[in-house]
Design goal:
63% helix; mainly alpha; globular
Length: 142
């Protein structure tokens, strides 16, 4: 285990040992070390493991960095964004929103709205604008 921590501390070593890290992702004795090391180098294979760590309220300090690296490597944001939203919706008052919010921020505009809701959001925005337009005109606001 100390060897894994040493390997995980180096981005270059993690990148070179990516296949070996991927092979031990499911080992429960290793905890979050392998997933965060692999995520920190932007390896897409780790996304389900990072999502599980986030859902189970991991205290791994490098977890947000791992999500950010994966996001920068153009990983599909769907699972990560869904998990972050699930956490925020489930316990908005009792949990610290820092990690889910950092995950959403890492994925940027891709986290703003799921694609299946784009048309609904556009329609709602149009309705909202049409309702506000008369009020703005009467107040003298263009």
């Amino acid at each position: 285990m100390p060897a894994l921590h040493t390997l995980a501390a180096s981005l270059t070593a993690s990148r070179l040992a990516a296949d070996e890290l991927a092979a031990v992702l499911d080992d429960p004795e290793l905890g979050a070390v392998a997933p965060t090391a692999l995520g920190s180098v932007g390896d897409h294979r780790v996304v389900p493991h990072l999502v599980q760590l986030m859902l189970f309220d991991s205290d791994e300090p490098r977890l947000a960095e791992a999500f950010k690296a994966v996001a920068q490597a153009s990983a599909d944001p769907q699972a990560s964004v869904a998990a972050a939203r699930q956490i925020l919706a489930a316990a908005p008052d009792s949990c610290s929103p820092a990690l889910p919010m950092r995950v959403l921020a890492a994925f940027g505009p891709a986290a703003a709205a799921p694609p299946e809701h784009d048309q609904q959001l556009t329609a709602l925005a149009d309705v909202g604008a049409s309702l506000l337009w008369p009020a703005r005109l009467s107040a003298g606001v263009p």
